[in-house]
Amino acid sequence: MVKAEARIEIERSPALVYRFIAEDFALNYPRWSPEVKELEINTQGPLRVGSVGRQVRVDQGRRTESVFRITQMEPAQRLTFESNAPNFLVDYHIAPQAEDRTQLTFTFELRRLELIMRPFEKLIRYAVQEGAQRNVRTLKRLIESEQERVS
Predict the structure, then answer these.
(1) pLDDT of amino acid 99
(2) 2-150 CATH
């Protein structure tokens, strides 16, 4: 398994961070993850546990398509989705800090590495960790600037 985790403090309330990440997921996900070239939510209505989506990503020149399912969704606390092909888990954990501050923890687990990719495992681990760090920095920038425009 390849796992990466990154944390960052965002100067916004947990409710605002959660809204940006989870409630407005279809709109905002491609903004904080530009590797996403296509995104479809295939379940009608608002995002919820059991919702299914499809994404096409291009990461370092490699195109992958996956179908994912929301497995956890707790208001102002957590959004988790999982896929079986490729087998991964993505988790956004939102925790209150001081007044109007939130700690965001992003976790990515690639649960199985294809046999052909195993010789490159060290490189993949590095790229995944760098991607996790970039992900939380981008989220911080977008969420903080978004709220400034609304205020």
Answers:
(1) 81
(2) 3.30.530.20
